[in-house]
Amino acid sequence: IYIHDDKMKRLFVFFLALALLFCIVSCAVNFKQSHTFFALDTYCTVTAWGVEERALRELESLTLSYAQLWSPTAEDALLAKLNSGAVTTADEETLFLLETASQVNGLSDGAFDVTVGALVEAYGYYDDDYRVPSEEELEVLLRPVDGSSLVSGKSVTLKEGQVLDLGGIAKGRIADLCAAKLKSL
Fold first, then answer.
1. What is the sign of the dihedral through the CA atoms of 68, 65, 112 and 89?
2. Around 159, how many Cα atoms within 13 Å sit in the side-chain half-sphere?
């Protein structure tokens, strides 16, 4: 198209840019994908633009695999094995999570502690048999709570009576891992 008038050229370029912008925005909206699934005792929804639903299902699989790994109650879960003393070594991601938990424990002067699993169990959260433990029981269960130093090299060391529960940190870490996976896609 050949246009003689400068005003008309500018007007033509403006409308061409506007049409292009409209096309880009409408295409982006069409690439929006959402996927909802149940994990970690909650409904999780992942919404992304420009990826296929298959990628969002990969995030579900990633979430479920870490939820299983860090479950305090599933028999074959790494966390359950650590709690029972059956294993003392962990994968890199679990070690990172426990090291982070120990750092947060120090930064919070012990207010955040992942060695409270025995207390969580006593209150009935693992088997949905909720109750309030007696003062005496709580006193005994609180004695071993100290998540200040859990990791040494690739080993996880729990003191007698300590039970790990990663419920206060695992969801956030899994969200970080999903975000990194999504960015790589």
1. positive
2. 13
Q: Give the list of residues 6+ apart from residue 174 with CB closer than 8 angstroms, or none.
A: 40, 62, 63, 66, 67
Closest to 142 in 3D by CA, of 126, 124, 158, 163: 163
- In this predicted model, what pLDDT tens digit does every residue of 122-154 receive, in sequence order? 999 999 999 999 999 999 999 999 999 899 999
Question: Looking at the whole model, is its pTM more than 0.90?
Answer: no
Backbone angles phi, psi at 46, to 5 degrees: -110, 125
Cα(120)–Cα(122) distance, rounded to whole angstroms?
A: 6
**Under 8 Å between Cβ of 35 and 57:** yes
- Residue 79 Cα to chain centre, angstroms: 15
Q: What's the Cα-to-Cα distance from 10 to each of 1, 4, 16, 180, rounded to whole Å?
A: 13, 11, 10, 43
